[in-house]
Amino acid sequence: MKPQVEVVAIDCLMVRLFEVIAEDNMPWMLAAAQGLRRAFGESLIDLVPSYTTLMVHYDLLALSPSEARQRIAVALTDLAPSTTQAGREHVLPVWYDLSVGPELALLSRRSGLSVPELIERHSQREYQVFALGFAPGFAFMGLVEEALAAPRLNTPRKRVAAGSVGIAERQTAAYPVVSPGGWNLIGRTPSRLFDREREGYSLMQPGDRVRFAAVERAEFLRLGGDDTPLEVSA
User: Fold this and answer.
1) pLDDT tens digit sequence for 154-208
2) Helix, strand, or coil (residue 141)
3) Of 67, 79, 170, 201, which one's alpha carbon is 20 to 30 angstroms from that of 181?
């Protein structure tokens, strides 16, 4: 690993730790994030982790660009992943059904798996939260197995219901709020993924681990889910 520092803006630097996405990156990313927060202290405005990078937004009135680079160098010196640091574990109930997951049939044809097999394969795996973005509380998770991977839709939908669970390439995610989106939808979760009253707002954070648990429609509704069918043409 050879970290690189790139200029993003006058008060933002991007620390690139890796060139490819891999689940093994996450312990190093978490350790780097912790070190950067310590090194910058109150001079840090925001720290945004992603799959392979961390964006450091610092107070330009407190630090010069050269001082910011020096603090990054200090934070990454003798970097080592923690053996005890671990994110939280989440289990998200999901109602997998064509009415709320219209791409179930498409992914079934692409993979050669039956719809029940596809659901089982998606829900059996534990996923790592790599990053938050796109919408408040939207957690990019992976990696789905190769057989389930699928490109984004050619034409994104104008409206995707909150809680919709989807796949894009080897990533999976659940939409926290109603928004446009181009992921392949396979189901819906009743879990509240974004809450302004929650500390940190998002249910999930980078480094957390997630499992999807298949539930029947009755259980989905009991948990507060909205079973309004998705308008496929939207």
Assistant:
1) 999 999 999 999 999 999 999 999 999 999 999 999 999 998 887 778 999 888 9
2) strand
3) 201
Q: What is the β-pairing status of strands 89-94 and 209-214? A: parallel
Instruction: Locate 96 and state its tokens.
Output: 């997998």
Q: And the tokens for 158?
A: 């104008």
139-142 and 89-94 as β-strands: parallel, antiparallel, unpaired?
Answer: unpaired
Q: Which two tokens stand for residue 184?
A: 């392949």
| Nearest residue to 207 via CA among 111, 122, 131 | 131
- Is the CB of residue 33 less than 8 Å from the CB of residue 49? yes
**H or E, element range at 72:** helix 65-76
Nearest to 110 by CA among 148, 164, 80: 148
The candidate with the shortest Cα–Cα distance to 220, out of 180, 190, 191, 199, is 190
Is the distance from CB of 212 to CB of 122 less than 8 angstroms? yes
On whether the CB atoms of residues 103 and 181 are closer than 8 A, the answer is: no
Q: Which of 170, 214, 8 is CA-nearest to residue 16?
A: 8
pTM score: 0.80
Spatial strand order of the sheet with 53-58 comes to 4-9, 12-16, 53-58, 44-49
- Domains in the chain and their CATH numbers? 4-76 (3.30.1360.40), 89-222 (2.40.100.10)
Q: Whole-angstrom Cα distance, residue 156 to residue 110?
A: 19
Q: How far apart are the first and last CA of the chain?
A: 44
Residues 165 and 93: beta-carbon distance below 8 Å:
no
